[in-house]
Amino acid sequence: MPSSFTIAGVYALPGYGKVSTDLVSHTRRHIDNAHKRKSLKEHPVPLKTKHTTRKSLAWSFSQQFGQYGLQFIGSVFIARLLTPDEVGIFALAMAANFFISSIRDFGVGTYLVREQHINEDKVRTAYGIWIIVSWTLGLILVLSRNWLADAYDSPGIAEVIVLLSVSFFLGPFGAPAQSMLMREMRFDILHHVTLTAAAVGTVTSVGLAFNGFSYMSLAWGMIAAAIFRLILLLWAYPNHLKLLPGLRYWRDVVNFGGFVTGASLVGTASNEGPKFILGALINPAGVALFERAVQIPTIVRQGIFGPLGRVLLPSFSRDIRNGDSIGTSVEKLVAVNTVIVWPAFVTVGLLAEPIIVMLFGENWRIAGQMLPYILISQGILALLPQPDQILLPHGEAKRLFFTRFTATSVNLAVTTLGAAHSLMMFAMLRPAQSVIAVLIFFYAIRKFWQTNLRRLRPIYMRSAEVVALSALPAVTATFLYDDGVPVTALFSVAITAPLFWVAAVFVVRHPLAAEIRLLLKSAINLTKR
């Protein structure tokens, strides 16, 4: 789960540079042509080549890691400018915001991306539902602010919620443009928009925190990013400035979006619910310590699942419509997840406490003690694809909902059990919760992922071998410094561990080695031009 500062950056982000004029002009021409068609004339989703999918993945990964890179740098400053109590106030307000936000999309974005035939009236319907749902939820969030503030005896929560609610009233205006860009797999434009907004949000939050705005600096950063993102989306898709809302296809959208929304809601409860439990059974500082501990694994896992999810939904949906198997793609997905997540988490886990203290300061040492257990928990989840990635392209929204509901119930029960004892017990029980979640996910996707554990076993073995080799620098540092690993040793591990990882991928002949060779070949060919 991202840290409170990381969350603030996500909504605002935009990054380096501006949207290139050639890409924008291409998009404008595409929309102009589309609006010349009769509004009821449906046209099939254009088929994308494998090359296009690979390029989309490259843009998507670049966006995710660039975004988190900006947020991570900002969080280092925030950790020194704000206290755990101040960050905790914002985190509790953001937990409420995200809980309600899980309903805001109502599955409409997924509907536009996955729908085989799109026309103007369907886009207008999506726009209309977005406005109704998002504005209603924004009003509910504002009206509930005092109740939440009183529940945690923290008036600051109400202040933050009022400001965060602005995003609910702005969001619908850019939502159709974003979904259509995803449908067309224009991840290059989305890359520029997201990173530019991220930079605006990050700079705003750090600047205001430096000038004494306390926890409100994080809220202002999020709103600044949301405004800038909206401006860029409408610049990339200018005809949506004239788009009028409608409800002609509301039944189609609601039938599909209802279970998707339910799954999103319970998924958010699984992510944000532990914060409320920790806040109630321990204190806001406990929430902030948990968020700081989970920030590093979240950056890695969401850095993988975020980009893959954005691309795989339209890609898997296309393959399923065409009658093609997704089994091979699922195996590649598991190979990428395990060979990146496992080595990274083992290396960081061996040096967790000194890393946290170096990055965030002595106040956050307890987060470093919690981190190894959270890393084990997150590593276990990498064993399988996320159920959303498999079930949504198959249209199994109902199955996804009940899968998420079951896993969330277990998560909250285990969280309550641990938090009732202590913050460290809560952390120590996270791996057990993940084991149960993996079993639930496997039962849900086993008939749809078009592969099996026998085919995945060699992938797991190869990834484990990569872990053993790539963790050698961290293991060496741990044994050499019994009284604490110095900063110079941490930097040494940061430099050598990736080199060991690359070598290990080729030595054990991991499936990812072929993709690395292809990337190197493409880079060499590009330099020769």
Can you walk through the features of this model?
This protein has 529 residues and is an all-alpha fold. It has two domains: 1-248, no CATH class; 302-524, no CATH class. 80% of the residues lie in helices and 1% in strands. Strands 1-2 form a two-stranded antiparallel ribbon. α4 packs antiparallel against α6, α6 runs antiparallel to α9 and α16 (365-381) runs parallel beside α20 (430-445). It is globular.
What is shown here, in short?
80% of the residues lie in helices and 1% in strands. With 529 residues, the protein is mainly α.
Q: What keywords describe this structure?
A:
mainly alpha; 529 residues; two-stranded antiparallel ribbon; globular; disordered N terminus; 24 helices; 80% helix
Mean pLDDT: 81
Q: Could you name the ranges where pLDDT drops below 50 across 5 or more consecutive residues?
A: 1-51
Q: How are strands sequenced across the largest beta sheet?
A: 1-2
Helix and strand element order: HHEHHHEHHHHHHHHHHHHHHHHHHH
Helix content: over 70%
Distinct helical segment count: 24
Report the C-alpha radius of gyration, rounded: 23 Å
Please report which band the strand proportion falls in: under 5%, 5-15%, 15-25%, 25-35%, 35-45% or over 45%: under 5%
Largest β sheet strand count, sense and barrel closure: 2 strands, antiparallel
Our measurement of the CA-to-CA distance between the termini, rounded to an integer number of angstroms, reads 43 Å
Determine the structural class based on helices, strands and strand pairing.
mainly alpha
Shape type: globular
**What is the total domain count?**
2
